[in-house]
Amino acid sequence: MSGRIKINLRSSERYHGVLNAPHRAFLRSIGFTDEDIGKPLVAVVAAWSEAGPCNIHTLQLASYVKEGVKMGGGSPLAVPTLVVNDNIGMGTEGMRYSLVSRDLIADTIEAQVNAHAFDGFVGIGGCDKTTPGILMAMARLNIPAIYLYGGSAEPGFYGGKEITIEDVHEAIGAYIAGKITEDELYAIELNAHPTVGTCAGMFTANTMASIAEALGMALPGSASPTATSSRRVAYARETGFALLNLMELGIKPRDIMTYEAFENAITVLMAMGGSTNAILHLLAIAYEAGVKLTLDDFDRISRRTPYIASLKPGGDYAMADLDRVGGVPLVMLKLLRAGLIHGDALTVTGKTVEENLRNYKFPNVPHEHIVRDATNPIKPWGGIRILKGTLAPEGAVIKVAATSIMRFEGRARPFNGEEEAFQAIRRGEIKPGDVVVIRYEGPKGGPGMPEMLRVTAAIVGAGLGQDVALVTDGRFSGATRGLMVGHVAPEAAVGGPIAVVEDGDRILIDVENGRLDLLVPDEEVKRRLRNWQPPKPRYTSGLLAKYASLVSSASMGAVTLPRP
Ligand code: FES
């Protein structure tokens, strides 16, 4: 198919014509021929790092993508972007860089793709922030692009059941509570994550990979094969080849990432009980795509979408198990049959969602234990709900897929930061009926909304998951379960009501009615807010300080915006 794409190549302005000889000279130095220079120039962006299992293999995948690009008639070049590993940063200062890295990834891709005048790109992601960062760049740059996931790890096995990294975090809580020995904790650590690839449950990485597929930005079925599967190699080649087809058709990301596509993505998120982080990320990707999406869209879609997939942490199965029964296309087929997704939405195959599902080769195996019909759901509503109220006027999120409690009223136990709360749990100071409030961990206050997995896992591991709630302006890991409300906005650092919660105040979490209320008279809250002083920022120089000055509210996806 070489030579089929001849018009409107932006690389022509950089590399063709007499005056561009210096630019061509550098392409020749890396082995390009006249023929290579005449083809569409494709970036294969690998979010690559050896510092963790999630993205360690993406450079290798990039080489297979390049083969596909060449087969399609393009000239590929691999370029990197960064990875901040969430599990390794969890519970430490390092976690403050996690959400920050999402926007950095988008920015580094913009810089490289624009500076080198690439005509299109494939983005290969893995760990949590890499997928949304890549999708943000695709929406922002709006040149032909396809996403490829690096794949999840295979689940581990211990004590007669599948385990994941979530079990190690919860084992820490159980160890602190004296429920397991150090030897048992060590055995869980040894067995939890046995291969390369991302965290094995439907945590944030797998949620975002599923969303990339549901948005139409990744090839059908490409989210679920494990990192170790040979099918991932095939998907890599096919993705490279498909990009050239997309370029020939002239289809760009904003042709695909429409409002309807976001509705599809939210529906799949709710049906799978995916990570609450997806709400932040979808808001941010929509912002880049110029699509007006709000928290109310999530609430509306959640109320009409049945929760049908039994995936960890709310359910029993890992991504590898979902893969064996039909992957994300199986979930989408169930939703299409129920009339809950837009079958006419365009995708990177150049075909619609409905056409893709019609052509997809589903394995003919029993699957009801993992994915149910929409008429026989696990729960009649979606896995995540939006709460608003006097404690969260702009909104907050709760993952109902990971708890059976729909209403909880308790006594506030406020902490100014995650570490204070963790130490209180360690000392056994948190009691049944408490609502642990962790504040100054929002987009600006954290900065970077660190995930509270260490605290939530300690609560669940101590056997308090049914009796203690947590409310924070920070985030949760996709692996979090229990009664946990996050993304409370406005955050404490900008004077949201969460800043003035006092020890012993009553807090009501009412999922059915979508409420998160501080049960303190309005006048008293206003009086406290009048006396409130913002704390000194945690960072005054470097990346985190810059980020804190640019980041917006969690209710807007915590996107970084240029200062007016
Ligand atoms: Fe990378 Fe979980 S830490 S996907």
Outline of this structure?
The protein is of the alpha/beta class and 564 residues long.
Commentary on this structure:
The structure is a single chain. It contains 22 helices and 14 strands. With 564 residues, the protein is of the alpha/beta class. 60% of the residues are buried. The model has no long low-confidence stretch (mean pLDDT 95). FE2/S2 (inorganic) cluster binds at residues 54, 85-87, 127-128, 198-199, 203, 205.
Helix run count = 22
Report strand %: 5-15%
Q: Classify the helix fraction into a percent range.
A: 40-55%
* Radius of gyration, taken over Cα atoms and rounded to an integer in Å: 23 Å
Note poorly predicted spans.
none
Structural class of the helices, strands and pairings? alpha/beta
Would you count the extended β strands for me? 14
Task: Let me know the average pLDDT.
Answer: 95
Label the overall shape. globular
**Spatial arrangement of strands, main beta sheet:** 7-8-12-11-10-9-13-14
Distance between the termini: 47 Å
Largest sheet: 8 strands, mixed
**Distinct small-molecule ligands in the complex:** FE2/S2 (inorganic) cluster
Layout of strands and helices, then pairs:
Blueprint: H1 10-15, H2 21-29, H3 34-37, E1 41-47, H4 58-72, E2 75-81, H5 86-89, H6 96-115, E3 120-125, H7 130-141, E4 145-149, E5 156-158, E6 161-163, H8 165-176, H9 182-191, H10 204-215, H11 230-249, H12 253-256, H13 259-272, H14 277-289, H15 295-304, H16 319-325, H17 327-337, H18 353-359, E7 384-389, E8 392-399, E9 407-415, H19 418-426, E10 434-438, H20 453-461, E11 469-472, E12 484-489, E13 506-510, E14 515-518, H21 522-531, H22 542-550
Parallel strand pairs: 1-2, 1-3, 3-4, 9-10, 10-11, 11-12
Antiparallel strand pairs: 5-6, 7-8, 8-12, 9-13, 13-14
Helix pairs in contact: 4-11, 6-7, 7-10, 7-14, 8-9, 8-20, 10-13, 13-14, 13-15, 13-17, 19-20
The structure holds FE2/S2 (inorganic) cluster (FES).
